[in-house]
Amino acid sequence: MRVASYNINGVNTRLPVLIRWLTEAQPDIVALQELKCTDEVFPAATIAELGYAAIWHGQSRWNGVAILSRVGEPIETRRALPDDPDPSQSRYIEAAVCGLIIGNLYAPNGNPWPGPKFDYKLAWLDRLSAHAADLLASGLPTMLIGDFNVIPTDMDVYKPERWKKDALFAPQAKAAFAKLVGQGWTDALRDRHPDERIYTFWPYWRQSFERDAGIRIDHALLSAPLAARLKKAGVDRDPRGWERTSDHAPTWVELAP
């Protein structure tokens, strides 16, 4: 089974890109972030024509998350984190899909740092950590996947010195991510590529993708039952080079039955 994550950066604007990628890659379960559309205009019919059932949690112009599945209907178990510091923002959706619990998230960016947006980022990550602990305690095969907006280490960024003043690379953000993983989650990409610089996002400017000047901010965290089934994990780099594409590339994990 292949579970993928894709910050699509506008699901309707990038719909041709999404259709092409779903058709070519054929992932079994997909977590989408940054839909940038209300619930009413989410392209459910087009996605259904490709063989995917979907649930979504939209928001006008910003944020938005969805879970797609071609291996059974996703049964929503939660939208928004418990005690979300700003429930008006559509940043989390969770579902039971084909025997898994999938928590799809789009964490706050937090810039400019320091400031109220960064404070909100830390508060949101704190609530994520609390909910993640409960998910682990349940013993269910669980995956937290999506755009965490955190660069965990120097290995996850092309030139660390250029990101020192960015909220994605702030010490407090990195500490929050480390605390989350330290609960007992497996960072799938890093587990499968322990010594490799592997990126999931390249800014649009200065030919960042062509120069491979990227960062890793899209992650898949696996609970112990899923970590035992982890076969492969990677990044589909090709879609980042397509026309009118997202600045993220899809990430994926492959699980044994």
Automatic annotation (TrEMBL):
Coiled-coil ranges from the UniProt annotation: none
Domain Endonuclease/exonuclease/phosphatase positions: 4-248
CDD domains, alphabetized: ExoIII-like_AP-endo
GO biological process: DNA repair
SUPFAM superfamilies according to UniProt: DNase I-like
Annotated site residue numbers, Important for catalytic activity: 218
Known cofactor(s): Mg(2+); Mn(2+)
Cofactor: binding details: Probably binds two magnesium or manganese ions per subunit.
Record: active site: 106, 147 (proton donor/acceptor), 248 (proton acceptor)
Protein name per Swiss-Prot or TrEMBL: Exodeoxyribonuclease III
Protein's gene: xth
